[in-house]
Amino acid sequence: MVEAQSWTTRRSSNPRLETSVDIPNTPTGEVRYGTSNNIFAALSVTSIVSPAILTSLIIASWYFSNIGVLLLNKYLLSYYGFRYPIFLTMLHMISCTFYSLIAIRWFQIVPFQQILSRKQFFKIFALSAIFCFSVVCGNTSLRYLPVSFNQAIGATTPFFTAIFSFLITCKKESAGVYFALMPVVFGIVLASNSEPLFHLFGFLMCVGSTAGRALKSVVQGLLLTSDSEKLHSMNLLLYMAPMAAAILLPFTLYIEGNVLGKTLEKAKGDSFMVFLLIGNATVAYLVNLTNFLVTKHTSALTLQVLGNAKAAVAAVVSVMIFKNPVTAMGISGFAVTIMGVVLYSEARKRSKVTVH
What we know:
Layout (H helix, E strand, L loop, with lengths): L15 H4 L19 H5 L1 H4 L2 H28 L6 H22 L11 H24 L5 H8 L2 H13 L5 H19 L6 H24 L9 H24 L2 H11 L1 H27 L2 H23 L5 H28 L1
Helix pairs in contact: 4-13, 4-14, 5-6, 5-11, 5-13, 6-10, 6-11, 7-14, 8-10, 9-15, 12-13, 13-14, 14-15
């Protein structure tokens, strides 16, 4: 993994996701939850703000949190000198546990669901392990790669999803779907060959993160199949986050050393670091919360479209902030990859319509 390093300054999940859980298709509107008496329903936000403005604010929050966590991770791991991506990921998981408890048990944003069996517990634990691998790889890659290149690689998730779907479930897509994946791969090859700050280890970590994210989505659909085992995305995060933190603890101690002691020692003379870590961990949870809110107030398709655009927006913003060099060939490769992702989405929609 990543060896322990000193507090010296150096240099994107991608936590692209980096700390985000794949959101299953969620019906829009309040119909899904009935006449809930939770705090949000009592506040009756839509009676104060028009639905259009509320939706716009939620989408803006989604962009802010998704791009914000990328930029904060990049700043901490590359520029600020915090060289502990595993520990940082563990802080994200602890934060998600804490905020999920408040959101579900106190604010009741979704009905609380319990784990009903030992079998279901171990299935969720397996997903947590894959989740850890993906997020740690994504955060580690940000130490070595620009956010723009990190996002270009992350956009190839559909390619890995198609591969794992075929290998694990023997599910075959239409020829049009596979054809649409060609520009996804070609664009990354183009961008990689012309990336001025290319780093092989960072590239492999980012590919590992992207593959892990795709594997999790396939395995999640395979393991949590029965209605009794299916969990809402927010409940799934509530259970996965503490499991992920427990998995990461021995790894961060073994690989990164006495990272907690070093962090506390650094924090004594640098209070800004405490603010950065707390803010970073909070934004990591907001990624998951805004994923849910966007799906609830719009649709899963809207979330997918926003995701396609997010990579490009994050790349532009990161170049403006961190001033990393880009080439015309690299921009072209990124554009080809994003075009391939859009074509893939459209091909899958047409394929599903044809089947039905």
